[in-house]
Amino acid sequence: MTETTDTLEGRLSRIHKALVEDDFALIDEVLDDLEPAEIALLLESLPLAARTRLWERVAQDVDGEVLLHVHDEVRSTLIEDMDHHEIVAATSNMDTSDLAELFEDLPQQVAEDMLRSMDELQRARLQEALSYEEDSAGRLMRTDTVSVRADVTLETVQRFLRWKNQSIPDNTDALMVVDRNGIFVGVLPLARLVSQSSELAVADVLESDIDSVSVTMKSWDVATLFQTHDLVSAPVVDEKGLLLGRIIIDDIVDVIREGSDQALMNMAGLDEEEDLFAPVIPSAKRRAVWLGINLMTAFLAAWVIGRFEAALDQIVALAVLMPIVASMGGIAGSQTLTLAIRGLALGQISRTNSNWLMRKEIGISLINGVLWALVVAVIATLWFQDIRIGGIIAVALVINMLAAGIAGIAIPLGLKRLGIDPALSGSVVLTTVTDVIGFMAFLGLATVFLL
């Protein structure tokens, strides 16, 4: 068995070596020792080609759970590599809430076949889950709730549970108590069930001051409720108080993680589902949008300075355009830096994949650098009626964005090796690098070709 101290970086190194040497026995040995969530993190930490080869070795009985733990973009690439019957097998024993999360990512034909293979009750539960908004409690809740009536004795409940035996849902810390109409009235903790006299009625020992969750409540609000009230599970009810299901802490952990990822990635204008090892072209397209927005704000600042153009000579035109070079390099570097810091925090980046990441960022920087350099060159030439200025700022922009992409990976890796938290000081160092290189490239080229 793998030692518990085996880090993701260590597993990555072993998997990388095994993939290079086609050592499938070693791959299977590593995978056998991992939980589905750990396999998902491992898959997210590999480039596409290596990820596909590793996915082929994952046992079919855990495929479904692994798919639940990977990000949407990674999940789509994995599903594309699965046969029709593999997808059906992987999702056949899933809880309704888990299946609802995957359902919309499945190929249409597979989804239709899956619906036809379900019994009427399963189909109704899935369709009900899909009817709720994606970020609502209705999508989070599980319908495998054990409920009892308040007017029965604890002995009756105990006999009922012994009869249910293995069908009691996992993570059940309490039984839901309802009235004759299915309206939620409280919970019966299992600890009370086994410690109180079996002759007592459920109504005598139930907890009635329990916070229920509205089925339409936003998932982040549910997470806040769990956090502030230290909940392990919570009942989900409709507007009439009818018990619909339950939400457990496992589901809330995923919500909190996704929320934190989203907050971090949005700071740099990136999607929280951004695949760290996605191909260069799709990654470049996604980041180009935010770079375009940043470019507009940069030109706005340059336009304000340019309002004084009538009183200035040609050299001052350089000062007008300087913020563009620094700003574009800064935002390009911050995108790379954000992804790298998150990858380091999750243990996804190691010596075995850092070089691949560096090559990817260089490719993205060159694509976006050339794209926006052409845009800037045209605007600058028309603005100042001097093609030399347009050419100078275009070359400087490519140089600075290339430097920003390299620095965005190199800085957090270097700071980590020095024992410094990249999240605290990475952005400061990156801004310094992009400003210095951007100004030196722009003003240096201008000095050579204009003076």
For the record, give the distance between the C-alpha atoms at the N and C termini, rounded to a whole number: 69 Å
Percent of residues in helices: 55-70%
Low-confidence runs of at least 5 consecutive residues: 1-5, 308-312
The number of E-state strands comes to: 6
Decide which structural class fits the backbone: mainly alpha
User: Which sheet architecture does the biggest sheet show?
Assistant: 3 strands, mixed
Report the total helices.
21
Write down the overall mean pLDDT: 82
> How are the strands of the largest sheet arranged?
1-2-3
What shape does the CA trace take?
A: elongated
- Radius of gyration from CA coordinates: 28 Å
Strand content: 5-15%
Written as H for each helix and E for each strand, in order along the chain, the element string is HHHHHHHHHHHEHEEHHEHEEHHHHHH
Task: Provide an overview of this structure.
By secondary structure, this protein is mainly α. Helices cover 67% and strands 6% of the residues. The protein has 21 helices and six strands. The chain has helices at 8-20, 24-32, 36-44, 48-55, 63-69, 72-80, 84-91, 96-103, 108-117, 120-131, 137-140, 154-164, 190-195, 202-205, 219-229, 249-266, 280-306, 314-345, 351-384, 387-417, 422-450, and strands at residues 147-149, 174-178, 184-189, 213-214, 233-237, 243-248. The strands form two sheets. The protein has a three-stranded mixed sheet. Strands 4-5-6 form a three-stranded mixed sheet. Helix 17 packs antiparallel against helix 18 and helix 18 (314-345) runs parallel beside helix 20 (387-417). It is elongated, with a radius of gyration of 28 Å. The termini are far apart. The relative contact order is 0.08.
